[in-house]
Write a structure and sequence with these properties.
Largest sheet: 4 strands, mixed
Structural class: alpha+beta
CATH class: Alpha Beta
CATH architecture: Alpha-Beta Complex
Strand content: 5-15%
Number of domains: 1
Number of strands: 11
Distance between the termini: 36 Å
Strand order of the largest sheet: 9-8-7-10
Shape: globular
């Protein structure tokens, strides 16, 4: 099943990738073997297991508004959130909801049940990458912030135009760890060593009380925090980032013989196995997003860690999801010609 412009822009973007720089603003990440996942936080991260990745180049920051603007200027691309959904693709959709828009975070007035995300997420007509806080907002002073309200199709279209790809979950996690294979965070095993805030995440009681100890209510400029051990910025917090892997559930122990009966490598998950079982009438696949965002908090969603992972429907965009690209070492020569 095809939804909105999920498949629509790939060829358009590939038609003009000659003006994109080869490896400017990218860092080469040597390949290696590491222990992927964590046994200490959320079930979907388990079990910790050995994974091997080959070397690749990675954007040193998330794609910014300025970079995405250059792509749009070159291709006249219209993003997913700028195109009204077709009600036939969404059984039961009220006709009045068939308007262009995106999910926008709204802080609540006070404490709310944390199992109900609809308490703080609103589908906002007119919200898109150029209007990140709603139709009355713009990108003034945000050129160096990560682009948001980006769907999977948007990220793939940009990557195709730039002659790059989205990373796999394993590639992303290997890069985010920055050489600290046994650390829970990208900088060590403490969230705030010596009281330092080392990434853009929520300080305070989510979703109503943000103390702004880091100075930012929403996104922050890229390179605002120190890079990790590989020279990559904002791998933790700020915005979630798309990967190319379909989301699969964690390993499940077979009660009879102790074996695990679900593959641990999400790259082995097929699209048809990545639908939300709570939405059987709308079989929309989910990809893995990584890194957490400015909405992750100690009191909610402690996913500001390399091992953390989350499912994101491929037909959605939100005010806290962006992306960055990679170029695999085997592609470098081809991209330069």
């Amino acid at each position: 099943m095809t939804y909105r412009n999920i498949d629509q822009h790939g060829e358009q973007a590939r038609a003009d990738n000659t003006s994109s720089p080869n490896n400017d603003g990218m860092i080469f990440i040597e390949g290696g073997t590491f222990l992927m996942g964590s046994d200490h936080y959320y079930p979907e991260e388990r079990p910790r297991r050995k994974v091997r990745v080959d070397g690749f180049w990675m954007d040193e920051t998330p794609i910014t508004n300025a970079q995405f603007q250059a792509f749009v200027d070159a291709t006249q691309y219209r993003s997913f959130a700028e195109i009204a959904p077709d009600p036939k693709n969404y059984p039961g959709m009220p006709p009045e909801m068939a308007k262009a828009g995106s999910l926008l975070f709204r802080p609540t007035a006070g404490p709310v049940p944390l199992h109900d995300a609809f308490q703080w997420w609103e589908f906002c007509f007119g919200a898109d990458w150029q209007h990140p806080y709603g139709p009355a907002s713009n990108l003034d002073q945000l050129a160096d912030h990560p682009v948001v309200h980006i769907s999977l199709a948007d990220a793939e279209a940009y990557a195709a135009w730039a002659g790059k790809s989205l990373p796999t979950e394993a590639e992303w996690e290997w890069a985010a760890r920055g050489g600290l294979d046994n650390a829970e965070f990208a900088w060590g095993n403490e969230l705030n060593p010596d009281g330092q805030i080392l990434a853009n995440y929520w300080q305070g009681a989510f979703p109503y009380q943000n103390s702004l100890d880091d100075g930012y209510e929403r996104t922050s400029p890229v390179k605002n925090y120190a890079p990790n051990g590989y020279g990559l910025y904002d791998m933790i917090g700020n915005v979630w980032e798309w990967t190319s892997d379909w989301y699969g559930e964690p390993l499940v122990e077979n009660k009879t013989d102790g074996r695990c009966c679900v593959p641990s490598n999400p790259r082995g998950v097929a699209e048809q196995d990545s639908y939300d079982p709570c939405m059987p009438d709308i079989p929309i696949g989910r990809k893995v997003i990584k890194g957490g965002s400015h909405l992750c908090a100690e009191s909610y969603c402690q996913r500001y860690r390399p091992a953390a992972r989350h499912p994101q429907a491929i037909d959605s965009s939100t005010s806290h999801v962006g992306f960055r690209c990679i170029r695999r070492s085997s592609d470098v020569g081809a991209a330069a010609t």
